[in-house]
Structure formats: C-alpha cells, structure tokens
Amino acid sequence: MAVIDRVVNIIRNKKAIIFAGSGMSYYSNCPTGSSLAKIILETFDPEDREIFKDSKLPEISQHFVNLRNGNKTEIISLLKSQYKRHYNSIEYHKKISLIPQISNIITTNYDYLFEKAYCDRLEAIYNDYDLSLISLNKVHLYKLHGDFEHADKIILTTRDFTDFYKEIKIKIIWSQLVSLFTANSVIFIGYGLEEEHVDEIFDFVYSKLGNFQNECFFVSKTISEEKRKMLKKFKNITPIESKAEEFIKSIYASIHRHLLSDIIIRKVDDLTAKPVFEALKIIPVYTIENSKMKKIELLSPNPTKLKMNHKYGELFREISENSLNSNRCLIEVNHEDLRGEFSFSTKREKELKDFLTGESIEDFIVSSDELRKFELNIQDLQIADFKEGESKNLLIRNNPTEVHKSFLYNEISGRIDNVQFKIFKFPQIVHIVCVHDQFKIHYKIKYCKDDDEFQGNFTYEFRLKDSSLGIKLCQYLLNNDAIEFPTNNGIMRLANFTNDPNNIGFLKSMSDVFEKIHFIENVIGKTLINDESYYDISSDDILIINRLFSILHDKQIKTNSIKTKIRIINEEPIHRFIENSSSDVIFKPSVPEILDYKIFDKKIKIKIDSFELLNAKIKNLDELLKAIRKGIKEVFVIIESQDYILINNIETKVEALH
Question: Which of 32, 376, 470, 639 has its CA 20 to 30 A from that of 171?
Fold first, then answer.
C-alpha cells in the first residue's frame, strides 16, 4: 500500500493528529521565523545588526527585549502588525477543516489561519488552564508557542523557550499531548527539522513513547540526506517528500472520495460531517432502516452555485442496480437542477464529447475497465466510487427537457396515434425523438452561428409488426412539407427535411417494401412479423420480399435456367417446341417443385405444379429425344431462358422457425 494510502486510512479511522510548522502557512504569505527576524533586525543600530545578522528569531528577539529591560510589549506590538495583513489564501487550512475525522491539531505557528478556516468549530489551547475549559464537540488546536493576540502566552525569546522546555515534563498539557501521541499517528507538516527547538519536541515525544509509538509521517518539500539521517534517530517515522499544499490536497481528495461510504458504515457520524455539507452548499437527506444507514440523497438549495466541469445542459445519470456490488449503498443525486463534475479516463473522447455537447443523445455506457478510473463529483464530494469492489457497467443517459404524447397526421396517410415526443434541448442543438412502439423518428436541429440558420436532418428506426402502419408512416413522411410538434410553449413547426435525396429515396423504397409485405401477408393469411418480436428490415430481407412478391403477385420468377424432372404424357407439345424453339410450352413436373424461403422468423414453402416457358430452349435436347425414342416417360430436362418463367397453380405453406 502506498504511503499516502496508509495516511488516508489512518485519518479515516480517526487516528491522526496534524502537527503544523511554519512551512504549512507559507503559501498564505504568513511571515516566517526568518522574515520576523529581519523585521526586528532592522530596528537595531548598525553595530548590533552586524553582530546578529546570522542569528535566528529567538536570539534576535531576546536582544530586542534585553535592550528594553525585559519588557516584551514593544516587540509584541511590532510583530503583531505582521499578522493583521490580509492573507493571500486559507485554501489548504480550509481543506483540513473539511476533513471531519481530524479532531486534534498541534502547531508552533503564531498565525491564525486555522482559526479563520474553522471559525467557531475550533478551540485554541495554550496552557494547562485552557484544558479545563475545552469543549468536546470542537476541534482542539494546541498552540504550543502561543500567538500575538495572547502576549502572556507567547514563546518568542530564548528565555521563553528555555523556560517552556524546562516545564515540559511537569505541565499537564504535555501529559495530554503524550496521551494523544500514544493513541494516534502524528503527521508533521511544514517542519524543516533544522528549525529552533523542533528536535526537542521530537526527543520528548519519542522518549515518552518508547517502542510503542504508532507510525508517524514527516512531510517536507525536500528531504535531504541530512534530514533523513536526523529522522532515523526517531523510530517508526516515515518521510514523505511533498509540498505541504500538494499533500493536503491529496489527502483531502481521498478522504472526500470515501466520505459518503464512511457515513453509511458509520465511520463518520452525520453531525461531524455536517460542516462539510454546509461548506459545499449541499443538503444531505438520510434514509435509515433498522438503525442502519441505507441511502443518502443530496439536495442543493442553490444549484447554480455548484461547481461543475461541463456546461452543456442538464445530465441525468442513471446507475443500474448492478453497477455497485450488493454490499454497498447507492448514493443518489436527487434534485432536478443538481449538476456535478463528470470525469473519467476513456479512449472514447469524441463519443463522450458528443454526448456532453448534445451532438449525440444516445446512452453512454462506461465499461467496467473504464470505471476503475471513474469519478462522479458534486463540488468536492465524490458521489460514485467504482474503485473499490466489483463493478459492472454504468449507464449515463441524457434526460429529455420535455415529454409529450400526441399523434402524427396528414390527409394522405391519416392519423398515427400513441406517439411520444421527447425533446432534448442543448445550447445550439435540439433533438426531437418521436417514439412509437413500432418505430422511432429522430429529428436533430442544429443552429449554425456562421450562417445564422438552422440545419437539420432526421433518421428512422423501423421496428414494425404492422405492415399497414409501415405504409402509413412512409406516406406521412413523404407527403408532409412540415411537421408540428407539441412543446411546453405551444406548437413547434419544423421543415420535414425531405429535400434530402437520400431520405426521399429511402422512404419511397421502404414504402414499396411495406406494400409488398402487406400483399404477401394477405395471400398467405399470416403476418410475417409476430407480435412478440420486432425486426429491423435488412437488405437481405428486402431481396426475399421482392422474390416472394414476384411469385405470388406476378406469378413469375426470373431465372437463367431450371432443371426439373418432367412426366411425358403428350409428345406433341414437345415436338412442336423442338421444331420451333421460340414457341411457348407448359411443362408439368412429375413431382411438384418446392421453393423454400426464410423471412424473419417464418419459413414459406411455395409448391409449383407447372411452368410456362417464354423464349426458352432445352439445353440437354439430345438426351430428351433419346428418352422419347425409348419410350421413357420421366426425364430430367435443363431449360434455359432469357425471359421469365411463368408459374401456374401456386400453393403456399407457412411454418414457424425455431
């Protein structure tokens, strides 16, 4: 397990204490010990300035106080002004304040960044007396060196430090800290180890804990070999080479990634997590069954203030029941305007972009492999976490802006009832989807800024079990100059886009196909498509439909040649055919020919009792003549024709395919 993951797990189990040094406040433009030393040094005369130019803050402060007979009022006033300036930021202190599992912080800093970040949720502790007044429901900030708002408690000069560490063994506050160190892991952030008196804190803590201390962590931007050697003398401390800000950002994100699941399994109680939801402007609604948390719904009182990483309309996310394993609770985002960050690693960037921009409204399926890198966040709070446990596919679906039920109508086709209109609105694109239980028409209208006009097209999906409805639908689309759609604002009238030759040709061909299907169904007395399944009509289907229609309607079939066994009853027509090959003749097969066709889920058998040949010739003429001379009454003939072979006395039989 990576070091950061170990730190996160310790924090999630409420076993971590933050020990903050000056490096943690550097990003906010707080003065460091060296910058405070320079400010004091500027007040010295040139001779003293030269003497103390390489000294640290405690020595310089002590000299300043000595020059004023031990009075610290002036130096406190001088340095206090440095902490009244506007801080650049409290971002990372704020992030720590939104990690609800951290309840104890220790610092040697003089600044007030933690107080500003936590507001009234934090209580500062300076000495033994403060311990008797602390509130258990607040975060405790131990300010070991005090601050400039409490002049009597500040540790600044060398004498202050000497007195402070002399009393370290007898003060109750240190007994309290040792107790905390015993039960928790300490995360040191912002210490350089070379800072004054820091090593004394380490020595004291580790001398008290002996071999029983928990793993602790030392976070520093750079950890030189010298620092690593110094750390080795303290047992069980792990160095982490990272800027304080990056480290805090990383653990903050990881803690929030698990926060909702931690609330559900009661690692974090809802009262402790309340400040997080308040800061993110989200209202949690808990569902509890049998004293167990079952579900958290997230509402937003002001959705427009929510941070999100896309801007393309409202996304509706539908997580299938099998997306999360059965042992985990589904976290629902249950607000009509609630929007959130949507990000995951995928190689299908164009497909995802088309989905988010409205170019496509088809469902976006995120695979199990992609879900490993998936995050779905509202503000900084992770809603769905698919990194843990077994997960299947995630279905992401655009939600229609409007839904209506109406009908399609024109004078030629009449009325088509029970059509649902789904309208999807995006900044520059509108989709209108006409959904029927047997077809779907998808209109896509796009506004082109460059041309200042609308462009559109429409596509079809025929899944018809009713051939007469197919005829009606094609006639409707071919004969409508414009189509009217119901909307919340009245009727929207749109061009039918039938000026596209591809659309016109397709509709005409489909209309012809449905008319032929309708005729075939009437002849055979059965529907070709059953009531239980829908079928897309393929080019192979159309080829078979055309053959069936030709046989059943025109009583003819086009073929180059046919081989059949005929019974010779009357030789006269045969001799006449032989003498004049252009003559027409009817042959009667000795056994009726059976033609098998498979269409959709049906097998259609056509029995042919006789053939009428036009402009045909017999390829095996010599064999036929020999058979006649020998008196053979049944013989195979191969007949070639450049025209149609006409069929008489047709019978049909329909069987279901299994």
Answer: 32
